[in-house]
Every structure is written in C-alpha cells, then in structure tokens.
C-alpha cells in the first residue's frame, strides 16, 4: 500500500511541478512579448524624433533663407532711402533757388514799372 501512496504522491508533485512550470513558461512568454513591444515603441519614438529633427532643420533652413532675403531687401530700401533723402535735399535747395529768382524778378518788375 505504501507504494501506491508514494506513486500517488509523486504524481501530485509532478502535476504541481507541471503547473508551476506552465506558469513560469507563460510568464516568460509574457515578458518576452512585453520586451518586444517595448522595443517596438522605443524604435517608433526614435523614428518620430528623427523625423521631427529633420522637419525642424528644414524649417530652420527656410527661416534663415527668409531672414537673409528680408535683410537684403531692408538693406536695399535703406540705400534707396538715403538716395531719395539726398535727392530731396537737392530739390529743396533748387526750389529755394527758384523761389529766390521769382522774388528777385517780382522786385525788378515792381521797380521797373511802378504802380501809378
């Protein structure tokens, strides 16, 4: 009878070990899958960051080109403004000169033809 009890006890231990082994196997599979998904998420995040970096570099290059173009345009406007300022001063001087001629002419006219 002892051998039957021993066999029964061994089979229970084997069943218990098999249950434990099955749990370990399932946990191992679950951890592997979790690690795989974690690597996939990390890879996706890295790709997103690389794409974002490329987009930011593209925008920076575009903004630098815009800045350079606007700076050149501003420089051209300032140069033109200086030229126009110089022309304005010359035209004001010329206008004063013409005004003085007109005043002198009127004085000469009034001296030559006094009002009666």
TrEMBL record:
Q: Does the keyword section mention Chloroplast?
A: no
Q: Which InterPro entries match?
A: bZIP_plant_GBF1
Identify the stretch(es) annotated as Disordered. Answer: 1-35
Is the keyword Coiled coil in the record? yes
Q: What keywords would UniProt list here?
A: Coiled coil, DNA-binding, Nucleus, Transcription, Transcription regulation
Where is this chain primarily localised?
Answer: nucleus
The subcellular location is: Nucleus
Bias type Polar residues, positions: 10-19
Q: Which residues form a coiled coil?
A: 39-66
The molecule here is called BZIP domain-containing protein
Q: Which organism is it from?
A: Hevea brasiliensis (Para rubber tree)
